[in-house]
Specification:
By secondary structure, the protein is an alpha+beta fold. It has 2 helices and 4 strands. The protein has a 4-stranded antiparallel β-sheet with strand order 2-3-1-4, with helices on one face. The longest helix has 12 residues.
Length: 82
Amino acid sequence: MEQENRVAIISMIISCEDSVPAINELLHEYGKYIRGRMGLPYRERGLNIISIVIDAPANSISSLSGKLGRLKGVTSKAVYSK
């Protein structure tokens, strides 16, 4: 049985620029589900903030968020629609 898609926002705060290539690789891997991306450099704090709008099965959203959050210097959280 196929799982129904959910809409969610995955937000990341990145404090380690070395993780950016791995982040981009993961986002490319899940690209078929991504509907939008917004990135904001926060140079005064040495951070980058990225928000992703995703329409995917819940397990794919959770998987992506978890993989992102395990990268060095990356905090990731997903917020799901009802």
